[in-house]
Amino acid sequence: MRTAGALLALAALAAGCTGTASDAPAAAASRPGCGVLPQRLVVGLLGTHVEVALHGAIDALREQHLPLTCTTGVHGDPARYVTVRAVYHPGPVRLPSKACQAGWVYAGTPDKYAPACQEAVRGHARTELVVRWQPYVVHVDVGRSDRSWAGDPEVALAMSRDLARRLGVREASGNG
Length: 176
Fold this sequence. Notes:
Layout: H1 2-14, H2 26-29, H3 39-46, E1 50-55, H4 58-64, E2 68-74, E3 77-88, E4 104-109, E5 112-121, E6 124-133, E7 136-144, H5 152-166
């Protein structure tokens, strides 16, 4: 278990975690999705035997513009994880320009859609979604041991929408 915890900590650092320790209640911060993502969606992807690492808090992001990162990973399987990183970024955003091995797809509807890169990395699958919920930018990474990733961009967008609602983003209150 220490190895999995260390891997989650390294993944959080690799995701660029900065900011302050969470001020979220300890019980919520230890649940799948750290109390900032819909637990049912995270459990649907990973199950319940997970470890979580939370850096930051919704209130700190909203009020002090400090980043928020939550990583939920499966015990003993570092290829299976969900990481969300939300930052305050009111200015224009450059979308990733890197090549995407398996291809860029778009999640959502014509009213709200977001690019997602799906690729195989060292034999594992990964979906990275980037979405703007003004004035925030949210990155959601979903890692899998297999390539059964067909619905991952839509689930990632739903997770980001829920976080945006918690942040008070008016645009996120719609269904599009």
